[in-house]
Design brief:
Length: about 350
């Protein structure tokens, strides 16, 4: 019997457990393979931390957020941090441990960083299949990543809640959402929640345009405004806001936007930074289904020996693409695309003057 390992790497995301469950079920039921879970991403291949995955151990995980296997974004074996500073390449140890653990193939579920590591391990001869994961939905190789729609649903709920309090107090409410350097969560939740202004990294904003939109709305009788800003947004000619520049952790642009417009408007401004609430909790039905389809498809790729491939969705179809192609192509909001055009027609401003 062949033994297949599954790991989750990088940040967590709603739907990871649904992928694990579907892959385990398919590998066991359809292919009679043994499955083990590798804990804490690639770190578990250095510490040899594995657990059995079977019908009993995965029971009840479908609706649960997070990952049964735990995860980290600090365990890159090619650039492993050395205590006392610096990095070292421990990829050879990973390869040796995979052989010694008797693992014949690995399904790696993760974002950009995990996919890059998976690709490099593939080049070293490890049979890897990848499943893309990120709430940011910023991979061109797939129409959607699971977790994105859940994050959008959470952010939309936040916009709805801000609406009623904004309306009661005649305030400008600024909601900062995640997405790294892509504006997808802001764009989708802004449209779904009926925001007045959406600020995305792909369309740098001008403070005077935001002020102009607020004044225009006032002249039409509106007494409050909802602004959804993506964490990676920036002022025209300015820079992204970082919580920690060294590690490139984004955060705080909503406060920058507030400071940019405060002295030019009479309305009070309040800022909400939604943070990891977007990433935690139960996946919505769309993500459970997409994740389950990805898990099944990844298991099929393993069984067919199609290593070096990643599952993806195009339209209604689950397809596979080379991991190498997937990692090199990010997907950003197109300022001239249909989604932005629809938002414009709805009267939403992007604060860019277009
Ligand atoms: O890539 C997913 C994501 O949630 C981004 O939207 C966000 O910028 C980042 O991860 C946050 O990372 P961390 O959990 O390390 O703070």
């Amino acid at each position: 019997m062949k033994r297949i390992g599954i790991l989750t790497g990088g940040g967590d995301c709603p739907g990871l457990n649904a992928v694990i469950r579907a892959a385990v079920r398919t590998l066991i039921r359809d292919y009679d393979l043994e499955v083990v879970g590798i804990q804490l991403g690639f770190e578990g291949l250095l510490t040899r931390s594995i657990i059995p995955l079977n019908v009993e151990t995965i029971r009840g995980i479908l609706p649960k957020g997070g990952t049964l296997l735990r995860t980290t974004n600090r365990g890159n074996p090619f650039e492993y941090p050395v205590s006392g500073g610096g990095i070292e390449d421990r990829s050879r140890e990973v390869v040796d441990n995979i052989h010694e653990l008797g693992i014949d193939g690995v399904i790696a579920i993760g974002g950009d960083g995990t996919l890059k590591i998976a690709q490099r391990l593939c080049e070293m001869g490890i049979p890897m299949v990848a499943v893309p994961k990120t709430i940011d939905n910023d991979l061109a190789a797939t129409d959607y990543t699971f977790g994105f729609q859940t994050a959008v649903a959470v952010a939309t709920d936040a916009v709805d809640r801000l609406h009623s309090t904004a309306e009661s107090h005649d305030r400008v409410m600024i909601l900062e959402v995640m997405g790294r350097n892509a504006g997808w969560i802001a764009l989708y939740s802004g449209i779904a929640g009926g925001a007045d202004i959406i600020l995305v990294p792909e369309m740098p904003y001008r403070p005077e345009e935001i002020v102009r939109t607020i004044r225009e709305r006032q002249s039409e009788g509106s007494k409050f405004d909802i602004i959804v800003v993506a964490e990676g947004a920036k002022r025209m000619g300015g820079e992204e806001a970082y919580l920690d520049k060294a590690t490139r952790r984004l955060g705080g642009i909503a406060y920058q936007v507030a400071a940019d417009i405060q002295q030019h408007i009479e309305l009070e401004i309040r800022v909400t930074v939604l943070g990891h609430i977007q990433r935690g909790g139960s996946p919505i039905a769309f993500d459970r289904i997409l994740a389950s389809r990805f898990g099944k498809a990844a298991a099929d790729l393993v069984a067919r020996g199609k290593f070096g491939d990643m599952v993806a969705v195009r339209g209604e179809e689950i397809v596979s693409v080379a991991i190498a192609d997937a990692v090199s192509r990010p997907k950003y909001v197109d300022p001239k695309g249909q989604m932005v055009a629809a938002a414009h027609s709805l009267g939403i401003s992007f604060g860019d003057g277009a």
